[in-house]
Amino acid sequence: MTYLPHFFQLSSRQVWFQAIGRLLYQTGYGLIQFYIPLIFVKQIGLSATAVGIGIGSGSLAGVIGHFLGGYLADSQYGRKKTLLISAILSIFAALVLVLTHNLPLLVVANLIMGLSAGCYWTAADAAVIDVTTSEQRHHAFAILVLADSIGNGLGVFSGGLLLTLVHRIEALFVLSGVLFLVFLVLIQVAIIETRHDASNDTNTLQGFAIALKDRALRLFVVINVLFTTYVALVSSTLPLYFTLLPQNTTQNTASSLTSVANLFTWCYVGLGAVLQLPLVQILGSLVKIKVLMISMLLWGTGFFLVWATGIDSSIRFALIVAAFSVLSIASIIYKPFAPAIVAELAPPSLRGVYLAISYQCWSIGYFFGPIVGGWAIDQPQNISHHSWLVVTLSTLCGNLALYVLARHKVTNESVVAIEESISIAR
Length: 426
Prior knowledge:
Elements: H1 3-10, H2 13-42, H3 48-74, H4 78-98, H5 103-130, H6 137-166, H7 170-190, H8 204-212, H9 215-243, H10 257-283, H11 288-308, H12 316-345, H13 351-358, H14 360-378, H15 381-407, H16 413-425
Helix pairs in contact: 2-3, 2-5, 2-6, 2-7, 2-9, 3-4, 3-5, 3-13, 3-14, 4-5, 4-7, 5-13, 6-10, 6-12, 9-10, 9-12, 9-14, 9-15, 10-12, 11-12, 11-15, 12-13
Protein name: MFS transporter
Keywords: Cell membrane, Membrane, Transmembrane, Transmembrane helix, Transport
Subcellular location: Cell membrane
């Protein structure tokens, strides 16, 4: 267990403050994302496709949010003010959800939440990159992913407990609003501005043009769309799919809402929280792209197990546990190393811009994932079941693309040279 002191020594105080902020933000955000499909389909009566459209609309707003967050984070506004904007937007989204009982308001709430998430992820990760070295970053991001996992678990667990005690769905969104308010206070009190080049501003809009010319970044973005789509499918579609599996007398508990929520909390979120730091420590010596190839293989294995749950109902509970567990490991391997790769590509003055472009993958993934997943669930059982096999096969394409990326020399020297020439010209 020697990895724990190592992680503590590497991380600055600002990393820990960002981890606390991530915990608060993801508890509120995870609570919303997990329970929206279950509540609006099973209790309010909207179709899975309609709810998928509602959730996916937030991802479209996330496209704007990431660009906005990247622009603000690299401009004179800086990281801290961008995070404050994110917190305010998330509070507003929670208030709208309190009043939501139809699709239009659900779309509005998700649009606001998408803007918030776009601003948050870009500014928060840029701030962490600012205060860490290249050797430290995957360790620092592992701490943030751990906070992410704990936050998601707390969101799902507290939401289930609150529904059991209060029996009012509005209470879930009130709780998320309170969490976002605490997050706002934390940013104001504890987070400092980490942007270093305030006295020599780079034209941020020009920076987007520079980043888009980076071929390695463009290829990574294409690959990252697959990863983020998988994460979106697990968080927004998979729990609902398991609750709708045909029940039988020997395994009816496995398909209940409460049971699936508990399995998601302990096998997907909980297991990830326990294994996050040791797995990053073990894999830290490998080339980052090879780590992502391992993750991609595990995603394929996990989705194959999901497909298998529709074949043999006698061992369905065990297959659900195995699927959540394998997908959890795939997720916690992917999340710390992906932004570390982007950090290696990005010039210091364009970190927000590079992250904004790379995080468009989350917007795209969370747009297509819930919509395609919701559509598949609404189809006849045979189509719904075999759609997971299609997802499994897509991971083979992902690993092929990672192999191509590994063949490229991952460097940003040419981009840095372009940026320096622009700075000299100015």
